[in-house]
Amino acid sequence: MNARAAILRAQNTPLVVEDISLPPLAPGQVLVQLAYSGVCHTQLSEVRGRKGPDRYLPHTLGHEGSGIVLAIGADVRKVTIGDHVVVTWLKGSGADIPSAHYDCAQGHINSGAVATFQSHALISENRLVPIPRDVPLAAAALLGCAVPTGAGIILNTFALKPQQSLVIFGAGGVGLAAVIAAKASGAAPLIVVEPHAARREKALALGATHALDPHSSDIPTCVQALCGGAGADFALESAGLTATMEAAFQVIRPGGTAVLAGNVGAGERISIDPFDLIRGKRLLGSWGGDSQPDRDIPRYLAGMADGSMPFEQLLDREYPLEAINEALANLTTTTVGRGMLTLS
User: Fold this and answer.
1) Could you tell me where the DSSP H helices lie in the chain?
2) What is the pLDDT of residue 48?
3) What does pTM read for this prediction?
């Protein structure tokens, strides 16, 4: 069987969309016909080589999507043929098959346990969560990365309670997912710091109480004023910049918690005042919002169904697979929410 896939052949070059051949399923693998894939800054970082040399080239990309199960390998119990599924980089229950391999006219193609920039993919059983068939597959794709990371930090890491204050740096897919979950949790004030005007407007529409432009506002002073002079209870950094990481730690109160979720390049460092740690400030990193996909994805589906967490409002422009390079480029310019590849 053949599929169409976007392949990274060399860093800092456009992805190439080409035909690949799918091998037989290994035990624990599932063949998924992808319907949608999210387009994320993580993939842009891979293309641009921000993490350093890539020893797996050439390889597939994409770690957030949705689709339909076409076939299952031996010993797969979690899904059956015909199931609709969320495809996620986060590990859940089931077999953990770390890699897949494809072939094309130019030779061998590497892949990981999950790949979504392609029409069909071999996915490890533990990277799939079955969902009801009436869930729109475009919205379901959000549940593979943006939602469990952003909302997971709010609900799992912070366990945010009503009237606790929160500052979110960056209003991309992860940051806006956090806004939705924070509004549902009763955050007050709920402050977003974002340089792009359209993203600030989107954050306000989704429930932020304030949206600040870091280019025209003194963010620490503004946050202190909005939080009664003591700083925020929580801060989330999702922009992936060292300056906003330092700012997130700066704006929390003593006893507050800042979580860093954005990606930075290899070798980049941040600077903090260690006395702030002695005063009780906490600085944490996040690996996918402390999410457990089999537990949390049904929770997010319920929030979408009852309207308390309308994550479907994160959906932005759709692109065909052949426009993948445009979709990646738009992440830093025009994307508001989460851009989606349409794959079937």
Assistant:
1) 41-48, 137-141, 146-152, 173-185, 197-206, 219-226, 242-251, 274-278, 293-306, 324-330
2) 92
3) 0.96
